[in-house]
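Input/output pair, single chain:
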Amino acid sequence: MYLFLSITATLAAFFLLQSFAFFVFWRLWLFPPVFLLVFFASQIFFYLSVFIFLTKNNQLFYNTINGENETKVNGANKITLFRITMLPFLILLTLVSQKYGEQINPASGTVLTAAFAITFASDFFDGRLARIKKMETYIGKILDSASDYLLLGITAGAFFYFNLISPWIFLIIIIRLFLNALVMLILFLVHRKLRPQTTPLGKIAIAAIMVLLVLEAARVPELSRWIIFAESAAAFVIGISMIDKVVYLIKGLGAPQNGG
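Output:
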């Protein structure tokens, strides 16, 4: 019961915070009300989906260090949930910014960049907090992995649609995300257990993609000539991480099936 209330309170707080922020931007920038309606509709659908997933899988809220069941959403998981639930906010903010741009407010691009930077930065703090405070949970690992790939995949798709990212780097990002999903699926079918693990190179690749997307969102004229170098560096890191992911798959297939 306490966990249910904690899940509800956490999601409600994020819902109200993001909805208030988007409403404020609407009042300041005066973009068409239809975007406000689309935002709230997507918010409600997305939050309900997350709520149902969390409550239906409350048995996954256990500490992977001591095996104890969690009675509330801990701090690390709250940060991860913040990152996940920012998805509708970021995508609609991107849509508004790109569709109306300077017509709305010259600061719209800065706000968009800041929103992505804050959201992506949270990926560093949740894992670090979980390790320091020994609050690593199984649900946390699932949410952390899902948030990274869901957020990066959809964001990259939106950036590609609005020509904010080169087609070739978009393709490389999608292939990398697909490879990770495929590896997880194969290991799940073999071991009959979801193993949301990552590798150091995998973390570096995710960080490289996040940094690149923030730079692409900024589109600072003075840095535009350097974007191709940033894309090339990110592509190199992503390519190396793909090889690392294949090695991880091979090792995972050789691990004992009851190894967890």
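The mean pLDDT is 88. The two ends are 28 Å apart (CA to CA).
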